[in-house]
Amino acid sequence: MACRISEIVIDSTDPERLATFWSEVLGFVELDREEGGVIEIGPADPGFGGPQPTLLFVPVDTPTTGKLRLHFDVNATDRDQDAELERLLALGARKVDIGQGEDAHWHVLADPEGNEFCLLRRRLLPL
């Protein structure tokens, strides 16, 4: 028997903003809102415990500084990479240069709080 990742916890100075951003990026919905400002998002069906982990945004007073040791890679499911890049930028993502070079087949982006993530080229089937 092995473990599964059920939740990914993200510290945030504005959980509402990040939950909204990532809900739009991933097509997730708000699943729970706890005392203290914690917001959980995930797939509408089946929600927690399904094949995808949920995201928990936990309020913190100070922003994260420095490079994170973990980041998300995302893939479009219903459009090509260029169209998805434009959608993500319109949602509030911004391009980030970490030295990936002009020939990279992925885009490095940051969410509204500066958390880096990559948009990969390959299109995946929706779950």
Note down, in words, how this protein is organized:
The protein is of the alpha/beta class. The chain has two helices and eight strands; from the N terminus they run E-H-E-E-E-E-H-E-E-E. It has helices spanning 15-26, 81-91, and strands at residues 7-12, 29-33, 39-42, 54-59, 72-74, 94-95, 107-110, 116-119. The two termini are 24 Å apart.
Shape: globular
| Total of DSSP H or I helical runs spanning 4+ residues | 2
Quaternary state reads single chain
H/E element sequence? EHEEEEHEEE
The averaged pLDDT comes out at: 93
Strand order of the largest sheet: 1-4-3-2
Low-confidence stretches: none
Terminus-to-terminus distance:
24 Å
Our estimate of the beta-strand percent is: 25-35%
Radius of gyration: 15 Å
Summing up helix and strand content along with how strands pair, one would put the structural category as alpha/beta
Helix content: 10-25%
- Total beta-strand segments: 8
Characterize the biggest β-sheet.
Answer: 4 strands, mixed
Short description:
With 127 residues, the chain is α/β, with parallel strands linked by helices.
What are its keywords?
four-stranded mixed beta sheet; alpha/beta; 127 residues; single chain
Topology:
Layout: E1 7-12, H1 15-26, E2 29-33, E3 39-42, E4 54-59, E5 72-74, H2 81-91, E6 94-95, E7 107-110, E8 116-119
Parallel strand pairs: 1-4, 5-8
Antiparallel strand pairs: 2-3, 3-4, 6-7, 7-8
